[in-house]
Amino acid sequence: MKLKTRILILVLMLGTSFAFSQVKFEAKVSKKKLGVNERLRVDFEMNQDGDNFNPPSFTGFTIIGGPNQSVSNSWINGVRTYKKTYSYFLAPKKQGNFTIKQATITIEGETYKTLPTKIVVTAAVDKPKDPNDPNYIASENIHLIAEVSKSNPYLNEAITVVYKLYVSPNTGVDNWREIDSPRYNDFWSQNIDMKGQKVQNGTYKGEDYRFLVLRKTVLYPQKTGKLNIEPLSLDITVQVPTNRRDIFGSRLMTRVHKTVSAGNKIINVKALPEAGKPIDFTGAVGSFKFNVSTSKTELDASESLQVKVNVSGKGNLKLFKLPKISLPSSLEVYEPEHAENVKTNLAGMQGSISDSYTVVPQYKGKYPIPNITFSYFDLETESYKRLSSDEIVIDVLDGPLNNNDSNSNVTTANSGKQRVVLNNDQFAFIKTKTNFTSTKPTYFFKTPLFWSALLLPFLAIPLAIVIRKKKATRDADVYGNKIRKADKLAKKYLGNAKKALGKKEAFYIALEKALHNYLKAKLHIEISDLSKDKIISLLKDKKVDDTAITDFVSIIKNCELARYTPITNVEMQQDYEKAAKTISLIDKQAR
């Protein structure tokens, strides 16, 4: 009996010694699912002391506290328990699925790693209201508001969105950063310069607050119906008061991180009325003046003059086409130069746009430039208005006469006599020289053709060797082959776009489709929604240069904007060449 008892005690001692000697190093999280407005605690625990602790990068999170180090060492019933912990406090940057990667430490010369931990970050969640909780105090004293000037505008009517951050007097803000920036889908947008902004005093829900204007944006809706303005979300470091006081009686402050959002805004866009819409209406909305002028009205043939079509005022100046002028065929007209002098503020676009035509008369005479019309939708009267230019007469004082012009005041006398046309073949000549040919039969043997056919195979051998060497050299030129392949690829995908050059809408639809089809084929993916952010992410994963990525995204933006803005044939050609060059560059760089 005593022998069995001793054996049992020995086994227990060995088991205890083995359990203590086994090294444990693991990561523990406070929760695996949390809202974007909550905080996460991560503890890295070990049961033996180690060196060279290396935490993970915490991708997708911001470290707001830590590392905090704690050590516990105790003896219970003769058994020593040791625990060392490194603690981090994290704030999610955005929604999504993230992974806390492996941490490493060296214990007794060996490296140990924790297991990766998956974390799910959801939308903001409601928290229990604790009046003494700094996070609750911050949520009650910090507000981000999006003020929209008009919720039911007309199509192409300017509206503004102003983002204001309200802070109560007893709360402070150290800094902030954007988590989610709004994307204005189906709007033409422009941000207003916000330099030199100062904190102002105001009220929020009837209470005194301080506020700062963070962003001002002018929007022109490009579609009718209900359009969504995405929220602006910020991560803010807030100073909130606590119940503790210092030795002078002043309340102590504590820092917390708070995520605030302006919330979604729905804009109901009205269509322009069909009743009374002029035939020449091209989408101008606002209040405008229209003028057609010339640099001169008297000149000589082969001299040039400028005809300027100008629209000025307030409205969507960059989003409609100017009317074209109609000139007599005797005046040579060049493609117009488009100029814009437009400033954008909270009231929308203001300024002028113009097309300047260079005109060169070829013949002497007087040439009228007929009046042209320009139509727009007036927001004040909610009706269409039509403006007309005056007729301008161009007097060409000196130059050749245009005899084909029925309006010419110069006449040519007609004698009534029929003109005699001489025939060059009136006389036929008799040939005095003849070429006789031999009737003796000819043989192929020993003829020049015979010797050529005999020697040609021998001459072809060195030629074949040279061609083969060149082919081998070309096959070995990996970089050159990649360039040639990329150029062929660009031509393949941009073929339809090239055919549509000169037709703005068809060209940019074909160009955008070509860019997306190329990307899907290159990356072997099937994605129905290729957003710009997704394109940037995919190309970065393929190790494509930032310059090529920027060019690719800028072309896609041009395709979107070109449907609402006037584009010349020269700009279309430039966008086509830039697209071909960018596709070739990406094909060479993508891995």
UniProtKB/TrEMBL annotation:
The chain crosses the membrane at residues 449-467. It comes from the Bacteria. It holds the Pfam family BatD. Keywords: Membrane, Signal, Transmembrane, Transmembrane helix. Residues 1-21 form the signal peptide. PANTHER family: BATD, PROTEIN BATD-RELATED. This is BatD family protein. It comes from Jejuia spongiicola.
